[in-house]
Task: inverse folding
């Protein structure tokens, strides 16, 4: 059931907004503009009352974000040096250039991940598939994309269930990173087995429904644009135009 | 009393509505409790709270008889999700190994108790649903838990498979809490039935008392047990246990 306005929006308008945000995230070089871009996405998330779910999808980046930050901080070191430490064969330094580069890359990643998470939490995979097919994408490609969208929460659920099953049998996953990884092996094997089985089940289900034989497919879902969709298109074009006007005209 | 839940509430992160609402429940030593209700009524959530896999938003879980939290073993609805070892025996050894117990001896005893010693060298993935369920129960039982928590132990089993699992549960002499959709299974194998509806407990009591209340069953979306229907049809008093029901049926048929 569609609970909020964000879910009620046509997937094509959300796709257009996401596309604009991704383009802007790639071309914007300034930290302040990237922050504004994230805030604009956040407004939609708050508007859709989905902040908890949005954050839970972004939580997968909690390891990647500090890792990327420190890698970029030290490997793109240039400009004024705030702090440095000399090892025998290389120097580790925090510089103004390194800091700006790492924050920019992080914000860029966060804007793209944020808008992708917004799309995933507010769009049913089957609607996404219909939207892509409506945009003249080959049906197989549309199906593949929707399947990917479906697989993310499915994998999350399966991993959660496996983790619960092992933790309740006395598995202790505390300790250092290597120890932790080694201890997580009892979760990895059933997880892989479960995903492979899911693949087989899916193949069987598709074959049983004559996946290969139908040339022109029809859909039960009819997508229609409403007034909020028009507003979202307008909003997307506006933010793109404003950025182009400020920077290039 | 083994465990006591007091005013427990729980809401999933991605949901706005409570999955468990103001639940008060007492779990007594050595008894078997069946949690029954339709899909989404909160059965699995309640079991996971009891098994310490979910933390309630409010309320308390107390263990009046033990100073520290007792060992609680949880068997998931899909037993395959917990399997990862090559053989059934290794699977059953996993829990006692984690607890630093004599895993080989305990595993042998557990396999014997559950009646699956003949499967010990087989891959758990290649067994039938009923056998997998028994392996899952054995793999949790081998940790010698104080409370055994089983999520849908009869899921995808036919009546014969259900009874096979039920008979194993009867032999275990432990405090067991399980969820089920089958009112027949609950009537036959539970000491107490807990009816859940939209996260709230509708009724708790002996199977005979609870599973004969048509209004309660209707509200909770539970099918009336076959034995209750049969006694009603023959204008007889509902028997207090499954054994009595069998005896009664034989008498009527003779």
Result:
């Amino acid at each position: 059931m569609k609970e909020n306005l964000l879910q009620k929006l046509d997937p094509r308008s959300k796709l257009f907004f996401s596309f604009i945000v991704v383009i802007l995230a790639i071309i914007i070089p300034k930290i302040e503009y990237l922050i504004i871009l994230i805030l604009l996405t956040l407004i939609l998330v708050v508007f859709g009352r989905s902040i908890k779910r949005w954050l839970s999808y972004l939580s997968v980046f909690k390891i990647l974000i500090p890792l990327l930050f420190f890698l970029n901080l030290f490997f793109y070191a240039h400009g004024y040096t705030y702090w440095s430490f000399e090892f025998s064969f290389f120097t580790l330094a925090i510089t103004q250039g390194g800091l700006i580069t790492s924050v920019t890359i992080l914000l860029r990643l966060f804007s793209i991940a944020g808008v992708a998470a917004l799309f995933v939490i507010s769009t049913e995979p089957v609607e996404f598939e219909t939207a892509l097919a409506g945009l003249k994408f080959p049906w197989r490609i549309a199906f593949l994309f929707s399947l990917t969208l479906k697989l993310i929460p499915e994998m999350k659920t399966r991993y959660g269930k496996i983790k619960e099953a092992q933790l309740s049998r006395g598995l202790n996953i505390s300790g250092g990173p290597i120890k932790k990884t080694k201890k997580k092996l009892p979760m990895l094997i059933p997880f892989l087995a479960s995903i492979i089985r899911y693949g087989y089940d899916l193949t069987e289900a598709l074959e049983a429904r004559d996946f290969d034989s139908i040339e022109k497919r029809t859909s039960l879902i009819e997508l229609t644009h409403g007034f909020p969709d028009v507003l979202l298109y307008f909003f997307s074009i506006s933010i793109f135009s404003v950025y182009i006007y400020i920077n290039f005209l | 009393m083994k465990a006591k839940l007091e005013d427990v509430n729980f809401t999933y992160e991605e949901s706005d509505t409570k999955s468990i609402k103001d639940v008060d429940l007492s779990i007594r030593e050595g008894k078997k409790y069946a949690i029954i209700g339709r899909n989404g009524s909160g059965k699995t959530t309640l079991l996971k709270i009891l098994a310490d896999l979910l933390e309630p938003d409010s309320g308390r879980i107390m263990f009046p008889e033990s100073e520290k939290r007792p060992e609680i073993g949880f068997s998931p609805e899909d037993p395959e999700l917990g399997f990862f070892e090559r053989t059934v025996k290794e699977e059953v050894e996993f829990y006692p190994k984690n607890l630093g117990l004599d895993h080989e001896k305990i595993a042998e005893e557990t396999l014997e108790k559950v009646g699956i010693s003949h499967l010990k060298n087989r891959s758990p993935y290649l067994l039938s649903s009923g056998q997998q369920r028994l392996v899952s129960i054995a793999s949790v039982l081998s940790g010698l838990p104080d409370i055994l928590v089983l999520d849908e132990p009869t899921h995808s089993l036919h009546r014969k498979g259900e009874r096979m699992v039920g008979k194993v549960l009867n032999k275990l002499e432990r405090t067991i809490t399980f969820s089920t959709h089958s009112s027949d299974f609950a009537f036959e194998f539970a000491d107490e039935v807990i009816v859940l509806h939209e996260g709230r407990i509708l009724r708790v009591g002996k199977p005979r008392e609870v599973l004969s209340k048509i209004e309660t069953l209707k509200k909770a979306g539970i099918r009336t047990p076959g034995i209750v229907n049969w006694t009603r049809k023959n204008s007889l008093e509902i028997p207090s246990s499954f054994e009595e029901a069998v005896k009664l049926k034989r008498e009527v048929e003779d």
Remarks:
- Chain A touches chain B at residues 3, 49, 52-53, 56, 158, 161-162, 164-172, 185-187, 189-190, 193-194, 197 (CB under 8 Å).
- The CA atoms of residues 7 and 123 of chain A lie 6 Å apart.
- The mean pLDDT of chain A is 86.
- DSSP finds eleven helices and two strands in chain A.
